[in-house]
Amino acid sequence: MSFGMAAMFSAAPAADASTLDDIRTRDHLVCGVTEGTPGFAEVAANGAWKGLDIDFCEALAVAVLGRRDAVRYRVVSPANRFQVLAGREVDVLPRANAMTLSRDTEHGVRFVGTLFHDGQGILVRRGHTVASVLELSGASVCVMAGTGAQEGFERYFQMRKMRYQLVTAEQWPDTVKTYADGACTLLTGDMTLLASERSRLPDPGEHVILPELVAKEPLGPIVRQGDDRWFSVVRWTLEALIAAEELGITSQNIDSLRNSPNTDIRRFQGEEADLGRPLGLARDWSYRVVKQVGNYGELFDRNVGARSPLALERGVNNLWTRGGLMSAAPLR
């Protein structure tokens, strides 16, 4: 037998193993999360996990098992997350990395979709009355030395022939302190990181994250290669959260929309068609998800948006009908 054929046969058992069956056998989902990520995955004072990543894991648990509490969490790190997933220690990584060609082809994983559009942003004091990055030519910026953030900022400004002055530090806490002390006009880093740091400043309301992104980083769920059935469940759960917001379905009004004249709403509720059967789920799985967890807008607002300490604008994470990038494939 050739080496190529041997490799093909040795890989077959992993593809045959069903994550969906494993979850049902153990009666809970195992989610791999990065601990201490405000707004996304953190442990609250009462010991319970909370955040956007957590809510998405709970949505999956509802879709498969009908209960949002049927989840166990495994803390993973950037160094081991793909190995942990490949080793079947977790069923899904809810928001681990942005998709790149190398990550999508070299780690035995599949990127499902985008749960959150992150990217490199810019924080500035409200007193500067700046509405756009394009108004910042000549500004000084605090940035970690030798990082992708420095490279991304320089590339963005140079392409637009804008002047700038770098104020660098070797560590992120020192970079933030330099900005807080007023030694630079701007602070640049991942948008979610900027929002977290802003919430800890003495007067968060006096600092604004500008709408433009210096670089984009779409983040979303990742599953193992070779399990198309589970991939479909994760993908269509994500699509259902977004579709519910598009249709105006929330956790508060979903019951009042029973027998709606809108065919798409009736289909979403499981009244018009059985969309759960091809996924191996209950007929009303998407109804249960929104009833227990909410739609995408509800998840965003309470974890990272207006109702959270991060107070992020929807921006690119808004629906496509409101100028954002979030859109759902039709559930039909």
Structure characterization notes:
- The strands form four sheets. Strands 6, 7, 8, 9, 10 and 11 form a six-stranded mixed beta sheet that branches. Strands 1-4 form a two-stranded parallel ribbon.
- Mean pLDDT is 92; it is low at 1-16.
- β2 (42-43) and β3 form a beta hairpin.
- It has 332 residues and is α/β, with parallel strands linked by helices.
- It is built from twelve helices and twelve strands.
- The chain folds into two domains: 3-115 and 220-322, 3-Layer(aba) Sandwich (D-Maltodextrin-Binding Protein, domain 2), CATH 3.40.190; 120-216, D-Maltodextrin-Binding Protein, domain 2, CATH 3.40.190.
- Pfam families: SBP_bac_3.
- This is Amino acid ABC transporter substrate-binding protein.
